[in-house]
Design brief:
The complex is a heterodimer. By secondary structure, chain A is of the alpha/beta class. Chain A contains 25 helices and 10 strands. In chain A, strand 9 and strand 10 form a beta hairpin. By secondary structure, chain B is an alpha/beta fold. Chain B folds into 3 domains: 6-195 and 243-324, ABC transporter type 1, transmembrane domain (ABC transporter transmembrane region fold, Up-down Bundle), CATH 1.20.1560; 329-418 and 506-519 and 533-595, 3-Layer(aba) Sandwich (Rossmann fold), CATH 3.40.50; 430-504, 3-Layer(aba) Sandwich (Rossmann fold), CATH 3.40.50. Helices cover 62% and strands 9% of the residues of chain B. Chain B is built from 24 helices and 10 strands. Chain B has helices spanning 6-17, 19-52, 58-105, 111-114, 116-130, 134-159, 163-197, 199-209, 214-219, 223-243, 249-275, 281-293, 303-324, 382-389, 412-417, 433-437, 448-458, 461-466, 486-502, 519-523, 525-533, 545-548, 568-574, 577-594; strands at residues 342-349, 359-366, 371-375, 397-402, 405-406, 419-422, 507-511, 537-541, 553-558, 561-566. In chain B, strand 9 and strand 10 (561-566) form a beta hairpin. In chain B, helix 2 (19-52) packs parallel to helix 6, helix 3 packs antiparallel against helix 6 (134-159) and helix 7 packs antiparallel against helix 11. Classes of the chains: A alpha/beta, B alpha/beta. At the A-B interface, helix 3, helix 4, helix 5, helix 7 and helix 9 of A face helix 2, helix 3, helix 5, helix 7 and helix 8 of B. Chain A: Keywords: ATP-binding, Membrane, Nucleotide-binding, Transmembrane, Transmembrane helix. Chain A: This is ABC transporter. Chain A: Residues 346-593 form the ABC transporter domain. Chain A: GO terms for molecular function: ABC-type transporter activity; ATP binding; ATP hydrolysis activity; ATPase-coupled lipid transmembrane transporter activity.
Chain lengths: 600, 595
């Protein structure tokens, strides 16, 4: 992935913009509060100087007024704390939501699924997910740094008034700040290196803590082994990060010593001035107080800058993800609209697919024409490439080589999402959408999702009416554990809803079904699929669409117009059931006879 | 009961995890906290020597040097403590994760795990671990402790001036700190309640941001729609969370008035004392620095949020452990080896709190060495029978016996280990193929030779051949390896179960082992199974009658009850449910043969 220079410049601005967009009022007030409050200690130090000088000349009136001033500053300083907390909490909460939305928008606009298979993209998403809190607290960090800067400015002005030479002291603090920045940079680099181990640890933790796997972990007695492996992976990651931080402490210490030398120099300078009559006693006390304050400020500035660095890093990651997504969208998008009705069909010419990071071709040299209006079955052993072919047809993956055309137009020439809008499907790893039943089915076609008749018809087509009837609130029953009172369904029940969902779109140009009945009842599987296909054929006729079904049930192939036999990533046979059966040495006939033989 | 303060929780847990390091860290924090008081005293000394002694005298240089040392320490000790805290905090994070895993591993039966309170706790903990972690919280504790203890040390210095002034000033500051902290306690309460309230929003976020739903989201164009739902759910959750917080106004005014009073009083008193000559200017400097330093005690940093969330997560972990602590089932005798005949006697099961029986009145016999197939439509209770058999569920009524002994009286953990199960949902480890088959190697790491023999049984050999690094290839593209297809994964699952059988399990439980298999692997499955398991007992749940028909004994379930049992021939001649189902599934092929 590339990191454009633009991203570096704008990272800080982008972090502030997040909070500004999320909650303008809270952000503004946080900036004002956090920006001005740190100047109060400098004011107090100045008032102490006024008091010392007034005491020397015996000005009681001034003494009392300065004391009252200190009291007021102290009151302002502490009294504003609860407001500041409330405001920054509000700001952080709102920003967290906005950051989530941003991540969702970005992931959602990746045009192909390929991107989400890329380990590098996954790593980046994972780090962002982990460091999300840095983004939501980003403006907070900026406000704190702003406050530190305001204080540094005020301190510098006051010191310059006492003696311009004293301005050298804050300058000597610069290496300390630089050392802290370096430490942050090392932290980021270490986090990046450790990301793979951290991800492994999280994977182990997730499996070990998910109720879904608890049967297996119990029967196989995996608990202790999971914990041990989690520990190993997490410790490797942690050791790496902590080690990098530890090594960065040496420059921090060296910079601290340098600053201390400047501090001693400043104190000696001002006491000498006093002895020579060039400074008042109040100014000696003021210098002492201010320079000591600077030391605390360096500590804080370092801490705030560290905080800010983390924000900028996270923000940079977000921006780089943004530009990656932009590139992806630009790369894939044409500007033509997809056809409403198919005329010739879908053609593949020399199509090959290799998954990111894999050296093996999942599919290669596939050249086929799927005529408009046909039902095509894809058969083959596991891993032959059936699912890959289906993913390519839907445009969810881009072919590594070759082209796919729809009525002669290349898939890449369509507007992003335009071809997908003309397709529908039920995948092997179907989604279990945790909404009401009506919505879980209805999202198959958002345009008619709220139409109860359309949803009921789809439910019927998916042979899911039995499931719906048995649920307490029928179509209105909430599903899944993310609802407080959600109903859990079995794999077969979820699959029927997925089948129903695939029937929501009224006239798709392409309907793909990848092992669509694998979790469905034995009694019903073949029958369900054949009925489903027959009904889908009628629907597809409206757009003269192609239906592609991958199934290892060869009974399904018989119901199709054409059969594609795939083996080891290549198409080995293509034709009607009758034609393929006629080839007595062909793999299709062998498979078919083997399966039917098991029942006779 | 008042919840324990998150700082206390964090410290306690850190100490329990790493007593030595935590003590060291505490000492470091104490040392860093003493520095402001030291600086206040040394400042006074410098003013005294600087204004009374001649230029560049020994005592003046000595005092300046002492100040310099304190000054260096003040800059270095905090970063050192922070790195130290990060190290201890990361250790604590690991410890917390392992404690969660251990707690969830403790109950032998699934009922305790699937209880809604348990799942809520786990999801809240996982959200906490993903956000501000214990390590962030611990670094926050160090930052806050150095700031607050350092300020408090100033109050102690003030006592040296007039104890009757120092003590009340310190108390008022402590009170204001408590006021402000209460404000944040409330924020803590809302932060604790937040994960549950954001559960729906989180689901929607993960739905869109993770890979599993990516295909359908793109096909159906759902991204914008999910975003809208997220916006609705999150703003509702945010509103609820905010309604539990009370405004900051009263606390702010109260704190301001109290501090106005004590600071004005302190400085007026110091001022008059200096004017009247009762207090030297150097001493005044010391006390003024100490008094203004006290203000730091009321400062609030963003660390507080990390502390609240991190501490809150630890509290949830404690709760989870308490919940699951009594779920051990140890101390009972080990089951006999080899296992004899297992009998279900009038077994019924329903989920706790549910009135619907999943299965009821089951009378079944599992003889050693026999293959028993269980068939039935979806929801007939097939998987429930399997889970009752291996002790993952406990019968609500009736009993299960082995050689006449109720299995309830036996050690459940050991009972479960006698079953090698492949359920419909099996773990797909993002680890090497070797680890996927033999994750928990019984005696040392599994050798390739042992595994290769096993792979031949399961049709996995050809998969191994094409993997770039053979058995060591990670089975996940995200981890630099290769993704397998559904059917290949299923064979990995099968190999895993057979490995377990080899490692000492006695009964093989297979729930739809061929659902993702193609014709070629399916047709030879039964022979393969028998040769791989030789004399072991097999319980097979399958939709595929081509496999089921070959079993020694077939149990037909319907509506949670046994409707028929026997072998294929007797069931076909009975012409009942089984015969009907078998005919229906083979029909498409008989038509095919005719045509």
């Amino acid at each position: 992935m590339t990191k454009p220079a633009k991203a570096h410049r704008n990272a800080l601005y982008a972090a502030i913009a997040l909070s500004w967009t999320a909650d303008r009022r809270a952000t503004l007030l946080t900036f004002v509060g956090f920006g001005l409050r740190p100047a109060l200690p400098v004011l107090i130090a100045y008032l102490v100087k006024v008091m010392v000088d007034a005491a020397v000349v015996g000005d009681t009136d001034l003494l009392v007024r300065a004391a009252l001033g200190i009291g007021t500053a102290a009151a302002l300083s502490a009294g504003s704390v609860p407001y500041a907390v409330e405001l920054s909490t509000r700001m952080i909460e709102s920003t967290a939501v906005l950051v989530d939305r941003k991540l969702m928008t970005l992931t959602g606009s990746l045009p192909t699924v390929q991107d989400l298979d890329d380990p590098e993209v996954l790593d980046r998403l994972e780090v962002l997910r982990q460091e999300r809190v840095r983004l939501s607290e980003g403006a907070d960090a900026v406000a704190l740094v702003l406050g530190a800067a305001v204080r540094a400015g005020v301190t510098a002005v006051v010191l310059a008034v006492v003696d311009p030479f004293l301005l050298l002291t804050p300058l000597l603090a610069v290496p300390a700040v630089v050392a802290a920045s370096r430490m942050q940079a090392r932290r980021t680099a270490a986090l990046d290196t450790a990301a793979a181990d951290a991800r492994l640890a999280r994977h182990l933790y997730e499996v070990g803590s998910a109720p879904r796997w608890s049967s297996e972990t119990r029967l196989f007695g995996l608990g202790p082994a999971i914990r041990r492996r989690y520990h190993e992976a997490a410790e490797r990651a942690d050791r790496h990060v902590v080690g990098a931080l530890g090594r960065a402490l040496l420059p921090v210490t060296a910079a601290g010593v340098l600053f201390a030398a400047g501090y001693i120099g400043a104190l000696l300078l001002v006491t000498r001035q006093f002895a020579a009559g060039g400074a008042t006693l109040g100014e000696v006390v003021l210098t002492l107080n201010l320079v000591t304050l600077i030391s605390i400020q360096v500590g804080q500035a370092v801490q705030f800058l560290a905080f800010l660095h983390q924000t900028v890093d996270a923000s940079r990651r977000l921006l780089s993800l943004e530009s990656y997504v932009e590139n992806s969208v630009a790369r894939t998008g044409g500007d033509r609209s997809a056809p409403a009705v198919l005329r010739y069909g879908i053609s593949l010419a020399g199509v090959g697919l290799r998954y990111p990071g894999s050296g093996r071709w999942a599919l290669r040299d596939v050249s086929l024409h799927l005529p408009a209006g046909s039902v095509v079955a894809v058969v083959g052993v596991n891993g032959a490439g059936k699912s890959s072919l289906i993913k390519l047809l839907t445009g969810l993956y881009e072919p590594t080589e070759g082209t796919i055309t729809v009525d002669g137009e290349s898939l890449t020439g369509f507007r992003p999402g335009a071809w997908q809008a003309r397709t529908s499907g039920c995948f092997q790893d179907f989604v279990r959408p945790e909404f009401t039943v009506a919505t879980a089915v209805g999202v198959g076609d958002l345009a008619t999702a709220d139409d109860p008749d359309a949803v009921r018809a789809a439910v019927r087509h998916g042979a899911a009416d039995g499931i719906v009837a048995a649920l307490p609130d029928g179509l209105a029953t909430p599903l899944g554990s993310s609802h407080a009172n959600g109903t859990e369904l079995s794999g077969g029940q979820w699959q029927r809803l997925a089948l129903a969902r695939a029937r929501m779109r009224p006239s798709p140009c392409l309907l793909v079904l990848d092992e669509p009945t694998s979790a469905i009842d034995p009694l019903a599987e073949d029958v369900t699929l054949r009925r489903y296909l027959a009904a889908a054929r009628l629907t597809a006729a409206r757009a003269n669409g192609v239906t592609v079904v991958a199934s290892h049930r060869l009974a399904t192939a018989r119901a199709a117009d054409l059969v594609i036999v795939i083996a080891a990533g290549a198409v080995v046979q293509f034709g009607s059931h009758q034609r393929l059966m006629a080839d007595s040495d062909g793999p299709y006939r062998e498979l078919y006879e083997r399966q039917s033989g098991a029942y006779s | 009961m008042k919840p324990t303060a998150p700082v206390v929780l964090l410290t306690r847990h850190a100490f329990r995890t790493a007593p030595g390091s935590t003590t060291g860290l505490a000492l470091l924090v104490l040392l860093a906290s003493a520095l402001p008081a030291g600086l206040a005293i040394a400042s006074g000394a410098l003013v005294a020597t600087g204004t009374t002694l001649p230029d560049a005298s020994g005592p003046l240089l000595g005092t300046a040097f002492a100040l310099g040392i304190l000054f260096v320490l003040q800059q270095v000790l905090l970063p050192v403590a922070q790195v130290f805290a990060e190290s201890v905090g990361r250790r604590l994070d690991r410890e917390v994760a392992q404690r969660v895993l251990a707690a969830l591993d403790r109950p032998r039966e699934l009922a305790a795990l699937t209880h809604s309170r348990t799942t809520e706790l786990v999801s809240a903990i996982n959200d906490g671990l993903a956000g501000a972690t214990a390590r962030d919280a611990l670094v926050g504790v160090v930052n806050m402790a150095v700031a607050r203890l350092g300020s408090a040390a100033g109050g102690v210095v003030l006592c040296a001036y007039q104890w009757w002034l120092g003590v009340p000033v310190l108390l008022v500051h402590a009170y204001v700190m408590v006021l402000v902290s209460r404000c944040y306690q409330r924020a803590l309460a809302s932060a604790e309640g937040a994960p549950a309230r954001f559960r729906r929003a989180r689901y929607l976020r993960d739905l869109l941001c993770t890979a599993p739903a990516a295909k359908e989201i793109r096909v159906f164009g759902l991204a914008a729609w999910i975003l809208d739902r997220y916006a609705e759910e999150s703003s509702r959750a945010l509103e609820q969370v905010r309604s539990t917080r009370i405004g900051a106004g009263r606390v702010g005014v109260q704190s301001a008035l109290l501090l106005l009073a004590v600071h004005t009083a302190t400085f007026v008193m110091l001022a008059l004392d200096v004017r009247d000559g009762g207090l030297s200017v150097p001493m005044f400097t010391t006390f003024a620095v100490a008094a203004t330093g006290l203000l730091g005690i009321t400062t609030v940093w963003p660390d507080l949020l990390n502390i609240a969330v991190g501490g809150g997560t630890l509290l949830l972990v404690d709760q989870l452990e308490d919940r699951l602590a009594h779920e051990d089932a140890l101390g009972s005798p080990a089951p006999p080896r080899p296992l004899g005949t297992i009998v279900f006697e009038g077994v019924g099961f329903r989920y706790p709190g549910s009135s619907t029986w999943v299965v009821r009145g089951l009378d079944l016999t599992f003889r050693p060495g026999r293959t028993t197939a269980i068939v039935g439509v979806n929801g007939a209770g097939k998987t429930t029978v399997a889970k009752l058999l291996c002790g993952l569920y406990r019968p609500t009524e009736g009993r299960i016996t082995v050689d006449g002994v109720d299995i309830r009286t036996l050690d459940t953990a050991q009972w479960q280990r006698r079953f090698a199960g492949l359920f419909q949902d099996w773990v797909r480890w993002s680890l090497s193929l070797r680890d996927n088959v033999a994750f928990r190697a019984p005696a040392g790491p599994a050798t390739d030779a042992e595994l290769t023999a096993l792979a031949r049984w399961c049709g996995l050999a050809e998969v191994v051949d094409r993997l770039p690094a053979g058995w060591s290839t990670p089975l996940s593209r995200a981890f630099g390896g290769v993704d397998l297809s559904g059917g290949e994964w299923q064979r990995v699952g099968l190999a895993r179960a057979l490995w377990e059988l080899r490692a000492g399990a006695e009964v093989l439980l297979l729930d739809e082992p061929t659902s993702a298999q193609d014709v070629r692997s399916e047709t030879g499955f039964y022979e393969l199974l028998r040769s791989a398991t030789s004399d072991r007992s097999v319980v097979l749940i399958s939709h595929r009658f081509s496999i089921v028909r070959q079993a020694d004994h077939i149990v037909v379930l319907a509506g949670g009850a046994v409707v028929e049992q026997g072998d294929h021939i007797s069931l076909m001649s009975a012409n009942g449910t089984y015969a009907h189902m078998f005919t229906l599934q083979s029909a498409p092929f008989s038509e095919g043969v005719r045509s």
